[in-house]
Amino acid sequence: MSAESPLILDASALVELFQGHPVLMRIMEGAGFGDFTMAVPTNAVLEAQVVLRATPSIWNQVLSPHRTIVELPLDLQAAIEAGDLARPRLEHHPMHRVLIGPPMVAQVLREALGMNGMIVTAIPEAYGGHDVAIKLVDWDPGV
Q1: Cα dihedral sign for 9, 12, 18, 20?
Q2: Does 131 share its domain with 63?
């Protein structure tokens, strides 16, 4: 993990961001200044929206283009790779908590592995068993 590694927000981190969590607010500020690259998988937005019920205009305001936020869409290849990562959880643990659905977790994992990124989450156990860097939302990004 290098200093240039992107911060990849999962659904739980997005919910914390919308609730004004101070660490996530500093991450947003740092992304705005170019201190961090912040990445948001579209499946994380989907799961966060289930909880947040935010309007599109609110999402656009929070994740506006001027903040150096990279949107990570789920294209065909990404969907195949994320599906392979999600399979063990779906086959062996069909019940799951809100904000840690296997498809979202798998897309976040895929992006973190492919980008050598760090996952920002409030629910680190969602990523157990995978060799990825995890930062809790209570982490101090030093901004």
Answers
A1: negative
A2: no
Contact 30, 36 (CB under 8 A): yes
**Domain carrying residue 65:** 1-95
Angle in degrees, CA 86, 101, 21, rounded to 5:
130
The DSSP output letter for 34 is: T
- The C-alpha atoms of residue 96 and residue 15 are separated, in whole angstroms, by 17
Whether residue 121 is found in the same domain as residue 71: no
Round to whole Å and give the CA distance between 39 and 29: 14
Lookup result for tokens 């992006």: 111
Q: Say which DSSP state 130 is in.
A: S
Q: Using alpha carbons, list the distances in angstroms from residue 61 to 14, 36, 56, 82, 124.
A: 13, 19, 9, 28, 27
Give the percent of the chain with pLDDT over 70: 87
Rounded CA-CA distance 110/141 in Å is 23
The pLDDT of residue 4 is: 78
Q: The pTM is what?
A: 0.79
- What amino acid is encoded at 138 in this protein? D
